[in-house]
């Protein structure tokens, strides 16, 4: 039986004899050159991978066999007989990219994995193994690929006591108590898994941060982790608590314009870099949800970011400054606040600062329009923050394939430079030239056996990494790869399960927040429905603030005669969103307060559509459960049973959502439930 620990790196033996033989014939021997930490990681992986998949013991040598050899080396060590055939590929190759190429010479066959740099070789190895794991032909390969985004990182919201904020997969994998001398095998496997999808950075600590992480006692533990991750091309970053100079430095202020405070951060950076020369930099949540920041001293985001950026700049470090801010003093529409606070500073942040923006302007909802800051700061580095952990999407209980959500956001058209300028173009720096590009995902990883709690939540970690590597990949392709590497290559499994994954995102929207509803989850924990909650101290924490249901209708009016949030988008989009008729129905109640009897495009009323969409969500979960039942022959028993039980809970809770929301909203709509909606019992 299989507990899921190996993730998508299972490398299980290929059952199909013919296929197995084709692979074995092509990969008769391995020639590998290089003996550095990164190249050794590549070497170990190719041996582990091929030995498992092809059930064959490989010995590695430098010599190139006369035919059917797999040859792995950086450019400078590739046998000169191949130079000519690789020349063009090398001229195209970008940093950390790789070439995988089949070359035939005088009837002799070679497969080459190469790169300008060592990390590119490691990425090439993982990608080559993926081809075999997913049963692709390796006869005539010609792949030249490289990451589109510079910095691809996980954000762990992990606390020093090993609790994980919004974590649903057990405690933090960082065992601070036993570090630095005890190196858990999990750290190495974590690095392998991340490198396999191209992730090259990790923020170890929660954005709601604890200054203690910056003390020497913790720094030696961080250094130990950095040493484990380095061969895999993964840099370590930390969250910087803005008030650290007071809390651990003994100063009386953390004012960013204060010389002593600046000096403290400069010294701190120097100390960190003396132990971790490739330290990535800081991630900062300032003046948001009670966190300290420059505004405590009458300064602004630029002042704060500049101070930290100056401290890490001499060492090549960066500062990721979060834009997730909203204040209790300006509550007409929380969705507008980040844009209002940040966009006027465009062009004022130093080059080694990047503004980290959540995908939507409220908070990681099942569906949000993309954040209007994307495309609105042409002279500032701006990066994407997605949430992989399912804070608002059923924790690690509900099956939801998030790459579909990520893809929807990335492919959204900003119209900032006319039609066809997508969020992905903003993020990858192709729209406005940027000094640094980056994408972060809030990790769903914990110390559960299978890392992520729900066996299918692994797909969200995987898919995030793939999209950070290339934001133009399709969710469907990602689903296909993941299913094949993780479970089975049988068509009878892959086809229905790809559909199931792809549809699962819309399903959760249907049974939680259809038609643009948002933030109606129960408070604090955000699990299950709570549209009725209205007694929290800050208005914008209450679900009633977001749906605004009354006898006339439902929805948040963000049009020009409402909060006017639509005006934060480009001219074209503003017009589309502003008009009830042109606003996409899936975002209707995000932008408009709509009468209960308003007719949607299908001719039926808003109320009836709401009811039937909730019902549809429930029916779809029932369908997921039925599909999964048919997958029993293709998966191991333990995971079959686990997923089966989880889907049963998901079905029960989809019904809970439907019943709770429909009964609650009915008090305002004052209309009967339509035919086709099963009545709450
Ligand atoms: O989504 C909200 C979460 C908080 C989180 C905050 C943030 C880390 O409910 O738990 O704090 O966002 O992103 O800063």
From TrEMBL:
Residue ranges constituting the Alpha glucuronidase N-terminal domain according to the UniProt record: 7-128
Query: Which residues are in coiled coils?
Result: none
Q: Which is one Pfam family of this protein?
A: Glyco_hydro_67C
- Subunit arrangement? Homodimer.
UniProt-listed Gene3D superfamilies: Alpha-glucuronidase, C-terminal domain, Chitobiase/beta-hexosaminidase domain 2-like, Glycosidases
Q: What is this protein called?
A: Xylan alpha-1,2-glucuronidase
Top-level EC class as recorded in UniProt? hydrolase
The chemistry this enzyme catalyses reads: Hydrolysis of (1->2)-alpha-D-(4-O-methyl)glucuronosyl links in the main chain of hardwood xylans
Under the cellular component aspect of Gene Ontology, which terms does the record hold?
extracellular region
